[in-house]
Amino acid sequence: xxxxxxxxxxxxxxxxxxxxxxxxxxxxxxxxxxxxxxxxxxxxxxxxxxxxxxxxxxxxxxxxxxxxxxxxxxxxxxxxxxxxxxxxxxxxxxxxxxxxxxxxxxxxxxxxxxxxxxxxxxxxxxxxxxxxxxxxxxxxxxxxxxxxxxxxxxxxxxxxxxxxxxxxxxxxxxxxxxxxxxxxxxxxxxxxxxxxxxxxxxxxxxxxxxxxxxxxxxxxxxxxxxxxxxxxxxxxxxxxxxxxxxxxxxxxxxxxxxxxxxxxxxxxxxxxxxxxxxxxxxxxxxxxxxxxxxxxxxxxxxxxxxxxxxxxxxxxxxxxxxxxxxxxxxxxxxxxxxxxxxxxxxxxxxxxxxxxxxxxxxxxxxxxxxxxxxxxxxxxxxxxxxxxxxxxxxxxxxxxxxxxxxxxxxxxxxxxxxxxxxxxxxxxxxxxxxxxxxxxxxxxxxxxxxxxxxxxxxxxxxxxxxxxxxxxxxxxxxxxxxxxxxxxxxxxxxxxxxxxxxxxxxxxxxxxxxxxxxxxxxxxxxxxxxxxxxxxxxxxxxxxxxxxxxxxxxxxxxxxxxxxxxxxxxxxxxxxxxxxxxxxxxxxxxxxxxxxxxxxxxxxxxxxxxxxxxxxxxxxxxxxxxxxxxxxxxxxxxxxxxxxxxxxxxxxxxxxxxxxxxxxxxxxxxxxxxxxxxxxxxxxxxxxxxxxxxxxxxxxxxxxxxxxxxxxxxxxxxxxxxxxxxxxxxxxxxxxxxxxxxxxxxxxxxxxxxxxxxxxxxxx
Length: 764
Hints:
Layout: E1 11-13, E2 59-60, E3 63-71, E4 82-86, E5 105-114, E6 123-128, E7 131-132, E8 134-139, E9 142-143, E10 148-149, E11 155-158, E12 167-175, E13 188-189, E14 203-204, E15 208-209, E16 213-218, E17 222-231, E18 236-244, E19 251-258, E20 261-269, E21 273-277, E22 292-298, E23 306-311, E24 316-321, E25 324-329, E26 332-333, E27 336-341, H1 355-367, E28 372-375, H2 382-391, E29 394-398, H3 410-427, E30 433-437, H4 448-458, E31 463-465, E32 483-488, E33 502-509, E34 511-512, E35 529-530, H5 534-552, E36 558-564, H6 588-603, E37 616-621, E38 629-634, E39 637-642, H7 649-654, E40 657-661, E41 669-673, E42 679-684, E43 687-692, H8 697-702, E44 705-710, E45 713-718, E46 721-729, E47 732-736, H9 750-753, E48 755-759
């Protein structure tokens, strides 16, 4: 496996004597990352950009291009008055331009190159990793194919017929309407490119070329993609080789190897599925992300095309585990704990300054003990997926959304779905990628169920989330897909268990801490819950993770959680790291330990605690010295009181509860008053009381308790606040949290006071 291939020598030039372009200079970055000043001027991001389809010869076109901005309807300018460092967008400091681009603008790029003589006799492909949004290319004054529409998928042109045998000129135009158009934009919005105040969860737009541009020689008939699906059930790797230039139907051989030793091979034809044996497969997991080398070569002619790649042997599915629907990796449930990763940079905006920077955020996930990352409504370059595959991080990949608050028209829908399929094709062979997330919180939502079915049919090897945050923001659940996904801030909250889909928490957390000297706009940062100090931040974060481990996962049936977020982003100050990646805010070792404990607990999670639904029970204290006391209601409030055979009948009825299936989660329970039917034991403002329901989601969650096995009884956590427990203190019932700041959180005898025995009812 070769993470970075050396480029073939290529004669290139930017501005020449005939151009009026000013010499390129960098712009000051709003914040400096550790890599800002490491970006080469002439050859930024020099690594080979497509690790799953490699060839030995290639030539990057990253570097200084002539640049101009015209009105959106203007033709090619006669002069290019600026220069830009590709592939950084003009809104960014690293581009050297750093200027707002609007829907009224069109971007123009220009440069020259000479094809190496060693490429003679081969076709020349011009490749773009990504360009946002409508990109048109000319070579020597002739248009290279149709304009490409899409901001997140790679595209290529065979420019061989357009070459002149000497110095060639490329001109690229890009039109990007951002939120004024109907296309996928994720969190991009047109705004000032320098720091400014504002509590916004959307960020600076990124227009034009933002991923590597390169040339590559190929045979006329050549391979364009390797679609690889591991099948653990029969120890094979299923490979479909895609091709162009007359390659369809021609012979092909695929070989899987490890350390230079062939593991298995198979022959077939381009476009057909090959079954390559991989006996006794070394499985890919986050703890052991083992990768096999793959080669594919066309057969039958001398000098036929040959490419390299890699794969990981793993499976992903949803099945019953202990009576709960769970996602299973290689047939086993492991809790997926990750963060929301926006993929923004203060110096490059959409483009990481270097490959090491691109890797850094993923490495920090590993350092902090996470085993998953949700790439949030942005699609990264293929090298990002390469690092996720190499480092061992499960990936949830969002499809970038259209603008929120708008209903997309027919044309926008067709474009969005076409781009989604292209993105799936581009990344379908990444072993780390285990789940597609179609839509988020209702932004640009439509046809949720149909889209989920479309994605599942197009890529049946992965899980599908039809809507992340179905409980938020007028989002609509399509009712299908593999998971049901709630958002809860600060949470971690409750995602009700279902009989078919696994329950996951697509977003929670958002704890904030502003680091002086490391703020995008000093004093402008915001979060879902500001923390007064680093110790407070650590305690709160670890408390959330512990709550999931103690209750949300085993009792509530939660199978995955996504913490917001790995870094600050512009004015969002809720990252585990500062936006400039200079400061890790949290205690890395402590967070890692909490995550590892959560993952370890999931491997031994048994069946959930079962209570007798429909039957009356009484709930007894287990704290030594108080074991003759029971939960009862009095004037609507919850207390404990001594109950015995000679107690009054009213007290016995007050101390008797009917067990119901949880109002907010079928894996949990609600306790209905014996003598006040329709009124349940619920928490409100931390005090636990008997209260009638109003039908609201909030009431149902407050009145749902998720039991876990304790020493000598059960512990009951609030469904909507995993890690906060039903506790008695001074004979009163409270919702309490170990290590909390309230009087009822007193650590003295906390575990004993939150452990209860389910007994026969005092009033049958």
